[in-house]
Amino acid sequence: MHRLAGIDSGVGDRLPEYVLGFGALLTLVLCGEIGVLLAAGSTVGLDGVFLIGVVTTLPFLAGISFGGYWLRDADLSPSRYPRIAGWILGSALVFLLINVALIAVMPPESWALVVGWLRWAVALGAGVGLLIGCIEARAIERSLAAERAALRAAHLEEQRDYLDYLNTVLRHEVLNAATVINGYASLLRREAATTDQHREWAEIVMDESDEMATVIDDVRVLLRTTDGEWTVEPVDVSRVLRDELQKLEHRRGPVDLETSIPPAVYVRANELVARVFGNLLVNAVEHNDAERPRVSVTVEPGPDTVRIEIVDNGPGIPDAEVDALFDRIEGRGSSHGLGLYLVQQLVTGFDGSVELVETGSDGSVFAVELPAATADRSSSDSEPAPAVEN
């Protein structure tokens, strides 16, 4: 165990440099052998055995050098390096011992052949060990990656089943309860409330039950974005915006609307894109303390993307909330709840972007950019919604 720990700490993440250095050392040894033989005028250098040893050594020297560069650029974890180093050293030692035994049994005629034989054995053993170590390391990495992927897939499937169960509970139990609460609160306000205070309390209960239903529906939409069946198609964003503006007027009371929406502007999205603009428009009015809320919607078609800006005259967004505006908020710490997180998730799913361009005491500006598309004439075109008056 102590010896293994020593290899781990010694090799660290510097194995590629060690391998390159080892290859360079063997090359210097070979060059030194040849230089000494030439200087001494020895005829051993012309011997066929020595020349065969030199020629057969060169591919392994090249392989060791290449292996060092490959290790430096490969995506192997450094935790694999000690194992590779073990293969290099072990294989070089085994080859060296075998050939030492052969030298003892069949001693060469000169010291030059002995040195060349030993150098050849070390180069061959180290090269083979490096090759085996790299192949094994890659196989281990791939096996671990496949195992991790399988575990992640199984974990995600378990999470998905659990989320589906929670969604079912939310929709069948909590949503039903919210509907009942809203119904009785409405009945109390209409039949039993005797003072303005009583009616205000009943309206608060109704608003909170509506908010509960909205959050549950947002959770359902978020689950749809992760169910593996996310598809996009050409969607007329002009029609979607007009529909959502009509809903805004019907549900949120008098609102001054200013629009610049060209007819039939298509983006790559699906029917859930309505939730993007529904949430942004509701936020523009719901958190607006102006005497009469004003919302401006501008659509700017481009060759690659379509930019939609939504401007309001509200009080702006507090500085403490700006940085994490589109993040998932645990609990109800943000006045914007789940809505803007849902917006960001949906827009990202459409390969688009959403940002808070500007905010201050005179209002906020949100910008959504979605990939542009052309109308799909293979599907039946729906009639455009009536235009909203400016």
From TrEMBL:
Keywords: ATP-binding, Cell membrane, Kinase, Membrane, Nucleotide-binding, Phosphoprotein, Transferase, Transmembrane, Transmembrane helix. One of its GO terms (molecular function) is ATP binding. It is a multi-pass membrane protein. Its main location: membrane. Its EC number is 2.7.13.3. SUPFAM superfamilies: ATPase domain of HSP90 chaperone/DNA topoisomerase II/histidine kinase, Homodimeric domain of signal transducing histidine kinase. It is an enzyme of class 2 (transferase). It is found in: Cell membrane. It catalyses: ATP + protein L-histidine = ADP + protein N-phospho-L-histidine. The keyword Kinase applies. Residues 169-374 form the Histidine kinase domain. The chain crosses the membrane at residues 20-42, 48-72, 84-105, 117-135. Pfam families: HATPase_c, HisKA. GO terms for cellular component: plasma membrane. This is histidine kinase. It comes from Halopiger xanaduensis (strain DSM 18323 / JCM 14033 / SH-6).
